[in-house]
Amino acid sequence: MVASANLTVTAPAPAEITRFVAGRTGTPLGVDDATPKVVVRPGVTIVVLLADVHAARNEDALTVKSPAFRMPLTIKTDSPDDPGCKCTDGTTVYAGHTALRPDLPAGTYRITVTSHHGQNTSTAELKVAGPPEGRSRPWLITGAVVLVLAGAGFTIRRSRRSKNVTPAP
């Protein structure tokens, strides 16, 4: 006896990226706040989010690369960085965070992700401007130097005065 069965093979759907955005951690990543409208400072931590209507099977993580990053970033499904968007359209959301290089000059930097097991490449832009995050303010350094010099001057002056005083007989 020979058994037979019908087998239907369906080709995977092509990627349908509805959002590929990056922004500062803790800020909305919606359409109005999406790259390239967002401007971030060097050294900040950003969240990168990609939403794909037709995510590839068995692809739970993607690698994002950019010259603005210290190293490549892995974004994942079910990430704690997922902002909890209301993706009721069946979209698969990949998210993750990374720190930007603190030495970035102002400019626009390309971010690139490859999905669908190497078959789809998506790009977005990230605008960087302003002083690096976490650097102390110039006025703070100047103020500290002035205080140290004033203290040193006061000490030297006091020392000279005490040398010029002669003890009473």
Question: Which properties best describe this structure?
Answer:
single chain, alpha+beta, 8-stranded mixed beta sheet, 1 helix, 8 strands, 16% helix, 32% strand
Write the SSE topology.
Blueprint: E1 17-24, E2 39-40, E3 45-52, E4 61-65, E5 73-77, E6 92-99, E7 107-115, E8 120-128, H1 138-164
Parallel strand pairs: 2-8
Antiparallel strand pairs: 1-3, 3-6, 4-5, 4-7, 5-6, 7-8
Question: How does this model look, in words?
Answer:
There is one protein chain. With 169 residues, this protein is of the alpha+beta class. Helices cover 16% and strands 32% of the residues. The chain is built from 1 helix and 8 strands; from the N terminus they run ββββββββα. It has one helix at 138-164, and strands at residues 17-24, 39-40, 45-52, 61-65, 73-77, 92-99, 107-115, 120-128. An 8-stranded mixed sheet has the order 1-3-6-5-4-7-8-2, with no helix packed on it.
